[in-house]
Amino acid sequence: MKAGDELPPLEIPITRTLIVAGAIASRDYQDVHHDPEAARAKGSPDVFMNILTTNGLVGRYLTDHFGPQAVLRKVAIRLGVPNYPGDTMVLTGTVEALEGDLATVRVVGANGLGHHVTGTVTLALGSAG
């Protein structure tokens, strides 16, 4: 592995169940993450994914790739367009730097509206790298 290497993409179908379950699991009871009528009343066409679910999916993407010994050390992500039910988010990653057992990966999650999440994640690879 070296800087510039690309990780294989991961397609994640964005279902209503994923959005609601992620909000419940992260104890985010904001109505826009589980109640379509409330979301519409607040200007959204439907419920949408919360940042904690997105953060978990980014972590899953990287640990699935680097293996069970990989440990997330720093996650710096920013949300863009929402993830709505019925869309698909495609996560991609590019290795930006390798220093000892640390890897920094640039991550992008895109859906039909554009970039849902962008950022960088630093992982300690341990014996997995």
From TrEMBL:
Entry protein name: Acyl dehydratase
Record-stated family: Belongs to the enoyl-CoA hydratase/isomerase family.
Superkingdom assignment: Bacteria
Domain MaoC-like: 10-97
A Pfam family it matches: MaoC_dehydratas
InterPro entries, per database record: HotDog_dom_sf, MaoC-like_dom
